[in-house]
Amino acid sequence: MALKDIKAKIGSTNRTNKVTRAMEAVSAVKMRKTQERALKGRPYARAALQILSRLSGGADLVRHPLARAREPKRIALVIITSDKGLAGALSANVTKAAREALRGYPVEAVSVYAYGKKGMEFFTHRGYRITGFWENRIDEVELSVMDRLVADLTRAYAAEAFDRVIVAYSNFRSTFEQTPTIRTLLPLSLEEVRKLVEDIVPSKGKYSTLDRSQDVPAYTIEPEDAELLDLLVPRLVAASLYHMLLESKASEHSARMVAMKSASDKSKEVVRDLTRTYNKLRQAAITREVSEIVGGREALAS
Question: In the CATH scheme, what architecture does the domain 3-23+261-301 have?
Fold first, then answer.
């Protein structure tokens, strides 16, 4: 490779490094904001979901249309991914986990609700029916979109349009750890609630001092427990889904920050190697020119 080409490549790589460093800084700021929002939402989600634990001992909850389990012949999948790239394998890991969860179900038995273009494109190309699609471009979780999605899911499940609702999303563990997770949203069950509540409490950090879920006595509701459950259960479903959306947002920004940091580090390494190669070739060219001058002078002298 000529010296001119190496020099041009060094300049191009330096410009790429400036871009990735800027994107890393932006992602770091967004990650901290989204992480704080997700962590602040955890106590509310934990308290709301523990209400279900207290109500789980009542027979009316078991008979509620949103808690009644059926043989899962028809499945609704809520897939939460990103509209943007440059986040490593974050969305790919979520779609892979979702595809694995659907193994054994025919394509025509699955209804996909895609929150994010990556998940929508993945399942569209594989012949799945996209029942609902929402873009995931902005950093805020739109409550109107979430309310409409929860309303569609609860209404269709109560009407027995499908027998199970599962959610595939990326669970935020830490800045460097995001886990693709599958949760059963409907029917509501105490076991799934316990798993989600357990994930709400981080293993370290200032939020790790929150009390973890505990078994509590069942509530006795007066005068009309069925009326209260009709109001409360959909809200618990919404709290669960909203928490998953927050987790997915925090995971996306974390993964993008890490990916941009890796790209910045790699570009520095490439520049260092190219500079070393450039200096070697330049030194060799100078040595060759000096040798030619010395050889010409000796030839003239003889």
Answer: Orthogonal Bundle (1.10)
CA distance 52 to 50: 5
Tokens of 297: 């002078």
Contact predicate 256/170, CB 8 Å: no
Residues 141, 245: Cα–Cα separation, whole Å: 7
Whole-Å CA distances, 198 to 93, 194, 207? 22, 6, 13
CATH number corresponding to 29-256: 3.40.1380.10
CA–CA distance from 36 to each of 100, 132, 251 (Å)?
A: 31, 29, 12
pLDDT in tens, the chain (302 residues): 677 888 888 888 888 888 888 888 888 887 777 777 767 766 766 676 666 666 655 555 667 788 888 888 999 999 999 888 778 788 899 999 999 999 989 999 999 999 989 999 999 999 999 999 988 887 777 777 888 888 899 899 988 899 999 999 988 877 778 889 998 888 877 677 667 666 665 555 555 555 544 444 555 556 556 666 777 778 778 877 887 888 888 888 888 888 888 888 888 888 888 888 888 888 888 888 888 887 877 777 77
